[in-house]
Specification:
Layout lengths: L4 H17 L6 E5 L3 H6 L9 E5 L4 E2 L14 E3 L1 E7 L15 E8 L2 E2 H10 L4 H4 L5 E2 L5 E2 L10 E6 L2 E7 L7 H11 L7 E3 L7 E2 L5 E6 L2 E7 L2
Parallel strand pairs: 1-12, 3-8
Antiparallel strand pairs: 1-2, 4-7, 4-13, 5-6, 5-12, 6-9, 10-11, 10-14, 14-15
The structure holds magnesium ion (MG).
Length: 229
């Protein structure tokens, strides 16, 4: 078959249009204030509905890449969280069907520039720069299939820094469980395959320092380990 130059050009143009219109690979949603003891430690109000924020996909760190301490904050805090992976597109999902929309659970750190967040809170301003900056979402490469868990309402997870236990949580302590979170989020946002949801941090948040090694565990399995540089 003889292919004319103009046919190639048209094809290339078409590829470019498809590429440009391609939706982002994934989005990161996050739930704030989902564990009562953590709400207390930051003197926050207990919410009637989940507190939602998002991070751009540029916040993701994968493959245990190091986290580079940014120059705009002097108080970066760790928040270890369970992360749900969305496996099916949906919106307005009823809670009773929500479990069909996620298939695996990973570990992540919701890094927070607490100093910037505090300023924003005082002024009633959005949290984006405090929560969504580059590298603010390290996520485990491995996600554990939901079917591997005996009981989603009894999953333990934890964070160590330089081998020392700093945060420990269990899903039984969540104010809003996975299914409720999915249902609630999907009222506002279409959830798409590959999207991630950070489901909130237990008590014990605190600052990280250059030179620290953070490790996140689900039950006894280490899923994430990286350095702060
Ligand atoms: Mg958090």
């Amino acid at each position: 078959m003889k292919v004319q130059i103009y046919q190639v050009v048209v094809l290339l143009d078409l590829c470019q249009i498809i590429y440009q219109n391609k939706p982002n690979q994934m989005r990161i949603f996050a739930i704030g204030r989902n564990y009562a003891e953590h709400i207390k430690e930051l003197n926050n109000e207990r919410p009637d509905e989940p507190v939602i924020f998002t991070k751009p996909d540029t916040a993701i760190l994968r493959n245990n890449e190091p986290f580079y301490y940014p120059d705009f904050s002097k108080d970066i805090h760790h928040e270890v969280e369970l992360v749900l992976r969305i496996s099916k597109e949906g919106k307005n999902i009823q809670e009773k069907f929500a479990s069909k929309y996620y298939d695996a659970i990973g570990a992540g750190i919701d890094f927070t520039a607490r100093d910037l967040q505090q300023k924003a809170k005082e002024k009633g301003l959005p949290w984006d720069i405090a929560k969504g900056f580059n590298g603010s979402a390290p996520v485990s490469t491995r996600f554990i299939p939901v079917s591997d868990f005996k009981d989603l309402k009894d999953i333990s997870f934890s964070l160590t820094i330089n081998g020392e236990l700093r945060q420990q949580g269990n899903t039984s302590l969540m104010l809003f469980n996975f299914d409720y979170i999915i249902s609630y989020l999907s009222r506002f946002f279409t959830l798409r395959t590959g999207d991630l949801i950070f489901t909130g941090t237990p008590k014990g948040v605190g600052p990280v320092r250059i030179g620290d090694t953070l490790a996140a565990f689900i039950e006894n399995e280490k899923l994430l380990e990286f350095d702060v540089r």
